[in-house]
Design brief:
Helices cover 80% and strands 0% of the residues. The chain has 4 helices and no strands. It has helices at residues 2-34, 46-76, 82-107, 121-151. α1 packs antiparallel against α2.
Length: 152
């Protein structure tokens, strides 16, 4: 039983780590690089903003690759719980998205979602709304994965 708990924790950690990395990667690639809406740190020069993006990009890749290495180990040991893992990916992505939208955008003011728009409310609502939906999906999948074990 304790060994199963350990593998459930590894599934959870791997999923959350991959989810964080995936959400950070999408944020960085789409909103920082492709759309040029903001940098990770916008309170200084463009050059420093680009350096902060590079550090942020490295973080996202380390998290993504680390999560995948843990997943590969779980699969090799035949201990992967797909629904639990996917739920934790959604939960990790959602938590990252809401953390970014609330803490980094509004409280710390490292950057905003977008500049040069009259009303950020719509952007904030969609940004944080997507994160909240991902968190709800993640919680539901984790709950279903645990319920499925009890039914069998």
């Amino acid at each position: 039983m304790e060994e199963k708990l350990t593998y459930n924790r590894r599934n959870s950690f791997s999923g959350v780590l991959f989810g964080f990395g995936l959400a950070a990667f999408v944020d960085e690639a789409v909103f920082h690089q492709l759309l040029h809406w903001h940098h990770f740190y916008d309170l200084s020069t463009t050059s420093l903003g680009l350096i902060s993006d590079g550090i942020f990009h490295a973080f996202s890749w380390f998290a993504t690759v680390g999560g995948l290495f843990l997943l590969a180990d779980l699969r090799r040991r035949k201990q992967m719980v797909p629904m639990l893992w996917l739920g934790m990916v959604c939960l990790g992505s959602g938590v990252f998205q809401v953390y970014d939208g609330v803490i980094q955008h509004k409280i710390m003011r490292l950057h905003q979602i977008r500049y040069d728009v009259d009303n950020l409310l719509y952007y904030d609502f969609v940004w944080n709304g997507i994160g909240a939906v991902l968190m709800v999906i993640g919680i539901l999948l984790v709950w279903l994965s645990r319920r499925k074990k009890h039914v069998q």
